[in-house]
Amino acid sequence: MCVAEGVFIHSLSLSPAPVRYPVSRLEAALQRPAAMATRAGRLPTTPAPALLLLLAFPFLLQGVLPSRAGDTVAAGRPLSGGQSLVSKRGKFRLGFFRPGATDNSSQRWYLGIWYNQLSVHTTVWVANRGTPISDPESSQLSISKDGNMVVLDHSRSSTAVWSTNVTTGVSSTSTVGVIRDNGNLVLADASNTSAVLWQSFDHSGDTWLPGGKLGRNKRTGEVTRLVAWKGRDDPTPSLFALELDPRGSSQYLLNWNDSERYWTSGNWTGTAFAAVPEMTSTGASPVSDYTFGYVDGANESYFTYDVADESVVTRFQVDVTGQIQFLTWVAAAAQWVLFWSEPKRQCDVYAVCGPFGLCTENALPSCTCPRGFRERDLAEWMQDDHTAGCARNTALQPCGAGAAARDGQKRRRDDDRFYTMPDVRLPSDARSAAAASAHDCELACLRNCSCTAYSYSGGCSLWYGDLINLQDTTSAGSGTGGGSISIRLAASEFSSNGNTKKLVIGLVVAGSSFVAAVTAIVLATVLVLRNRRIKSLRTVQGSLVAFTYRDLQLVTNNFSEKLGGGAFGSVFKGVLPDATLVAVKKLEGVRQGEKQFRAEVSTIGTIQHVNLIRLLGFCSEGSRRLLVYEHMPSGSLDRHLFDRDQQPGVLSWDARYQIALGVARGLDYLHEKCRDCIIHCDIKPENILLDDAFVPRVADFGLAKLMGRDFSRVLTTMRGTVGYLAPEWIAGTAVTTKADVFSYGMMLFEIISGRRNVGQRADGTVDFFPSTAVNRLLDGDVRSAVDSQLGGNADVAEVERACKVACWCVQDAESLRPSMGMVVQVLEGLVDVNAPPVPRSLMVLADPSKYAVEFFSGLPST
């Protein structure tokens, strides 16, 4: 996190000022860590020649042929093979490229435009999206006899695979093609290139660049649309498209197959679209650097945006997943950063997982096939193209078979059956049927060989043909209620239990006395074996123990001693056979699938740090999900801060300071030192546990978000607890580890004061402590901010340091917040800090008349 540390160190030298960091200044700040690292004795980060070669390496992997040939194509000067055009200031390049970072055997080549000065090859426009060429050496971009730009494939008898296709009325020598610095390819008059006959901005692909217009021509009815790629490495137009409402309103629509509308922007309000409030965000947001505008003229209506600072690189894109995304390039991180996308929930995209595909929000992968189905096209599936959906493993009985079951007679072993999926969003194209019970509803579906599923909840609903928009509603952020659907499968998808029934009958015939004796022996043996099993499981080192539910019933004495509970379940005290105390958490509301649950548990289970709770084992049986942690005898931090009647004494300042430092170290480990960066997402006193020496452990990873090291931020649904939520959660933008930093800062204020941040004065007005603490910090009276029950027994220097850190952590702009690594250094006294600027949110919250309305109104609590 040297990037974040660089911003923080720079910020320490600033005097208090309004918080507003446009992207241009943010990028400048992000360039400073090299100098800072040099002064600190670390290696400088200035790119060496070898590093520059490495940065250029992605172009070779992408199959790009980067030879330069000016910015113009003209009659007699075609573009072919390894040649390319580069805009005058070098911002964009036009040439033949081959999508895919690893598939160098691909023979699909395209003419496209991409950023010329970025280390990551990013295509913004493709000419021949649906008709790739096999050999760029035998193809060329040239000016045809009628003055149009064309892509000719000489391996196909000089077939034109793409053309500007406009009526020029001139000869080939009168027009030229020019690539401009805004990424626009134009066909223009050779003698006056400002006279544009055709431009790529009017024929967008999946990307919308600053300066481009996205709208409709009122005279011709022609619409400028963004159409997503079919796959990550396949620019073929997909079924997802964004366009201005053809009915004449000022809103944009995301459509599937030109028939299903699954998201609308809301009408233009003059400053933003009604359903996209992020467009009016302030602070360290790319929005503050851009000018958005909507034009509704006599001949055309369109929306456009421009960049105030040309050094800022940004784009809108309709992603292959069907979401529109707003991305900005951060040079210091050498990657694209996602600031917002719509619709926010991936599963709200229509048919995102194709026929019979099941969408799970906040899961990876988000699309899976239910029982009895497999990926219809695995190659496309791996490229995030799920439109083909899932196919049956075994075909259903043909029409005419299974007549006995449909006629109400005894069902045969080879008749189709139904697999019931609970907690799913039901497809919308159901048909009603008369049925008095679930059994009657099942028979109604069986009687029609094209019926593929049914659902009964007071009424009977039947589905015919493909099932579209199946969604697992147990996932976090699904946003919809769930029901149960029974999907028709072939009989072979179910195992027979006939042999088991015969065995049971045989045992009954053997005599009740014999059964009783055997049962007693078996029960005694099982109890002994279970105890031995648990003991043997405890000997496993460096890995998690997979307990059975019965194991944990024995360990907790049938969950008889409850330690506490929260939004995601209750915690019970347990004792393992070797006398080890454990805390067993029963998850009540987290219903991930078996594979997802085990993957998350295994990731958290590998974490080993003195300030992070240790996960010892887990249980996953059916719908039961339990976690086994080490037991923390001193309970949670909130009890010592706020429930003092139940505690033996007031937590000393030394203990509080060490707790604050320990939590910071734990979060720094999660953010920086794990294999995958982990954002906890719910830092608060209730989730800080204390051992018998009051050493803190960060606990409760129920809302944690894993983020690969290749990403600096992640877009996810709002999660956390009211009062500790960073502004970016509320704005719905992508979050980083700085969301945890904000929550930590709010918690640090509570550690200092020994009270909740929000209180009520005697006169009934709201008392917001962080504002009080900042005012006393600026007045030089930090001692009065400390918990009064400490009687002034606190190190003033440490109190001042803690107040400054807390205020830096809750800055509105995440770029101004320090990394947790820097927080640790400050609290350890290794780095000095100046007084921070007062966050606008603290000033707003200090005003009781604005408090409830502007910050906490309508926010969800977990």
TrEMBL record:
Q: What is its EC number?
A: 2.7.11.1
Which keywords does this Swiss-Prot/TrEMBL entry list? ATP-binding, Disulfide bond, EGF-like domain, Glycoprotein, Kinase, Membrane, Nucleotide-binding, Receptor, Serine/threonine-protein kinase, Signal, Transferase, Transmembrane, Transmembrane helix
What are the TM regions of this chain, as residue ranges? 503-529
Residues reported in the UniProt entry to bind ATP: 586
Q: Which Gene3D superfamilies match?
A: Bulb-type lectin domain, Phosphorylase Kinase, domain 1, Transferase(Phosphotransferase) domain 1
What SUPFAM superfamilies does the record point to?
alpha-D-mannose-specific plant lectins, Protein kinase-like (PK-like)
InterPro entries this protein is in? Answer: Bulb-type_lectin_dom, Bulb-type_lectin_dom_sf, Kinase-like_dom_sf, Pan_app, Prot_kinase_dom, Protein_kinase_ATP_BS, S_locus_glycoprot_dom, Ser/Thr_kinase_AS
Domain called Apple: residue spans: 399-490
Record flagged with keyword Nucleotidyltransferase: no
Name-wise, this protein is: Receptor-like serine/threonine-protein kinase
Q: Which gene encodes it?
A: LOC103636410
